[in-house]
């Protein structure tokens, strides 16, 4: 068995320094906060889509998903089968509102619809949830470095934090997206090489592996049990997972900020279509690597690990050729840094746009806000570092991130649903709904035996129900303040407002506007794709 060699270390160092240099070069173009947070709204759709994919295939997925597959086969794909449905919903509803409003953060829209109180509460919840999850994102590559070098995990956490924060402060969202594009291909390459190595080494190759996996029930993914305590049933995935990913991609600033960097609403939607189509195959790829590792270690002995997050990194270091190991581990590092810098960039954006610029320093120069943004990035880097020390106790890293978010994101999605789909809801109802939604999730986790995937569903439904009912206690929002901010503004004068806002925000020609109207069919295509995925998973289970 090979070990991490000097050649691997050289490849690792050169690759990380190269990516850091590439990302830092974008810092020269960051003259305003619009450049820093939105890339001047000039990023092509395919790069945004791949950036979203790279975040999903970050160190968290690269490490966590094979451990999932090794432990439970394909059952956890149920967490992701809903993604095409979630993307269809976002394309048809939330994303156009954000883009037309020409906002920097998703929570600015909530202020226009409900008032400053709703914006502040929602933004604060995002900061808490994403700040904690970023600690897990930092822990993942630090774990890899610890496994590879034998260094203490606390030392590697600090080392990774210093590298990532330094790189993030310089790069801005443009560096985030373009370095993500590179990481995407490196990680796919690493996954492909790992699969080939396992197929070559396991006697009997793919046929033997599939037989072994089938006998162990690892290819069965579709569990149609109606028992709410079954953690990864189809219903938990389709219902609970839909709300999880609709909330994540639609209300989490680290994701929606990418969409807002595009040149037009049409390109924003295209980026989501690309993600909606590719995310499931990508997760199947990494889960399948876990199944391959299960067959590999059945042949070559127990991997002797205490933590499933160590499974794939140890295989890469011990089984892949010198130099290739270094490249793959470097890809994990760089992808983790890209995931971390996107989170830190979005945390900085919300901190400055939704708090600092609102309550501390109003009407300052753009140069001042850009400098403040970089200091905010440093602060959140320190915050994530502290939480990363405790991430080892949270279980598989990919599951830990989703569980943290499930306490907050359902309630946040609920308030956006109220904002877009209702006219009667007011600010008091919105704030009450958010609080009630979070309390309901806490109650479910404490007193009910229910899969954590339902947490976002519970939070969203309670948030919508309570928020709408409480709104009847207060005044009805004035019609002129709703213009262009809800889905049901059908009056001609309001449509003129919408058209004016859309043209001002996107500067589209009549032909481009007509082209965007054709995107109304895209959600239907994604729903059809979901049906195809379910059929394919059923057929895989028959092997």
What's the SSE blueprint?
Elements: H1 6-24, H2 33-38, H3 45-56, H4 59-72, H5 83-92, H6 94-101, H7 106-114, H8 116-149, H9 153-201, H10 205-215, H11 234-251, H12 253-259, H13 265-300, H14 311-319, H15 324-360, H16 366-388, H17 397-406, H18 409-421, H19 427-447, H20 455-471, H21 479-482, H22 492-506, H23 510-517, H24 522-541
Helix pairs in contact: 1-9, 1-15, 3-9, 3-13, 4-13, 5-11, 5-13, 5-24, 7-8, 8-9, 8-15, 8-16, 8-17, 8-19, 9-13, 9-15, 9-16, 10-13, 11-12, 11-18, 11-20, 12-15, 13-24, 14-15, 15-16, 18-19, 18-20, 19-20
Question: Can you summarize this structure?
Answer:
The chain has 543 residues and is mainly α. The chain has helices at residues 6-24, 33-38, 45-56, 59-72, 83-92, 94-101, 106-114, 116-149, 153-201, 205-215, 234-251, 253-259, 265-300, 311-319, 324-360, 366-388, 397-406, 409-421, 427-447, 455-471, 479-482, 492-506, 510-517, 522-541.
How much beta, percentage-wise?
under 5%
Mean pLDDT: 80
Number of strands: 0
Which stretches are poorly predicted, pLDDT < 50 over at least 5 residues?
490-498
Task: Describe the sheet with the most strands.
Answer: none
Topology as a string of helices (H) and strands (E): HHHHHHHHHHHHHHHHHHHHHHHH
What is the percent of helical residues?
over 70%
Alpha plus pi helix count: 24
Structural class: mainly alpha
N-end to C-end Cα span? 33 Å
Global morphology: globular
What Rg is obtained from the alpha carbons, in whole angstroms? Answer: 23 Å
């Amino acid at each position: 068995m090979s070990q991490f060699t000097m050649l691997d270390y050289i490849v690792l160092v050169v690759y990380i320094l190269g990516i850091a240099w590439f990302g830092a070069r974008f810092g020269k173009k960051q003259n305003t906060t619009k450049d820093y947070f939105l890339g001047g709204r000039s990023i092509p759709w395919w790069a945004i889509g791949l950036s979203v994919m790279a975040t999903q295939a970050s160190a968290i997925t690269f490490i966590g998903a094979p451990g999932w597959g090794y432990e439970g086969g394909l059952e956890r794909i149920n967490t992701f089968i809903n993604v095409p449905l979630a993307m269809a919903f976002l394309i048809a509803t939330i994303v156009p509102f954000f883009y037309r409003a020409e906002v920097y953060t998703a929570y600015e829209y909530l202020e226009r619809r409900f008032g400053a109180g709703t914006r502040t509460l929602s933004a604060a919840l995002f900061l808490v949830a994403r700040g904690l999850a970023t600690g897990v994102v930092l822990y993942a590559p630090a774990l890899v470095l610890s496994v590879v070098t034998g260094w203490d995990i606390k030392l590697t956490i600090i080392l990774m934090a210093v590298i990532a924060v330094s790189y993030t402060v310089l790069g801005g969202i443009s560096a985030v997206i373009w370095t993500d594009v590179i990481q995407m291909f490196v990680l796919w390459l690493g996954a492909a090489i790992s699969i080939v190595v396992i197929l070559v080494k396991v006697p009997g190759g793919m046929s033997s592996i599939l037989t072994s996996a089938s006998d162990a029930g690892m290819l069965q993914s579709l569990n149609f049990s109606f028992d709410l305590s079954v953690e990864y049933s189809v219903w938990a995935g389709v219902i609970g997972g839909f709300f999880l990913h609709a909330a994540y991609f639609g209300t989490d600033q680290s994701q929606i900020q990418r969409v807002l960097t595009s040149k037009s609403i049409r390109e924003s939607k295209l980026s989501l279509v690309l993600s909606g189509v590719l995310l499931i195959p990508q997760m199947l790829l990494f889960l399948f690597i876990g199944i391959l590792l299960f067959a590999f270690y059945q042949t070559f002995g127990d991997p002797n690990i205490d933590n499933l997050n160590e499974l794939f990194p140890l295989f890469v270091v011990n089984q892949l050729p010198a130099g290739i190991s270094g490249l793959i581990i470097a890809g994990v590092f760089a992808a983790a840094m890209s995931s971390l810098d996107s989170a830190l960039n979005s945390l900085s954006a919300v901190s400055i746009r939704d708090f600092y610029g609102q309550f501390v320093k109003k009407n300052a120069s753009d140069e001042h806000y850009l400098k403040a943004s970089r200091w905010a990035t440093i602060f959140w880097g320190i915050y994530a570092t502290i939480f990363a020390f405790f991430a080892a106790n949270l279980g598989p890293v990919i599951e830990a991130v989703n569980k943290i978010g499930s306490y907050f994101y359902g309630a946040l999605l609920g308030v956006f649903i109220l904002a877009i789909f209702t006219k009667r809801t007011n600010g008091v109802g919105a704030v009450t709904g958010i609080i009630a939604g979070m309390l309901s999730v806490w109650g479910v986790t404490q007193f009910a035996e229910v899969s954590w995937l339902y947490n976002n569903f519970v939070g969203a439904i309670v948030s919508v129900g309570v928020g709408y009912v409480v709104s009847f206690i207060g005044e009805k929002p004035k019609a002129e303040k709703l213009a262009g901010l809800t889905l049901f503004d059908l009056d001609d004068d309001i449509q003129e407002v919408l058209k004016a806002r859309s043209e001002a925000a996107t500067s589209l020609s009549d032909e481009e506007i007509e082209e965007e109207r054709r995107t109304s069919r895209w959600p239907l295509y994604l729903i059809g794709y979901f049906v195809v995925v379910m059929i394919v998973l059923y057929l895989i289970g028959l092997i």
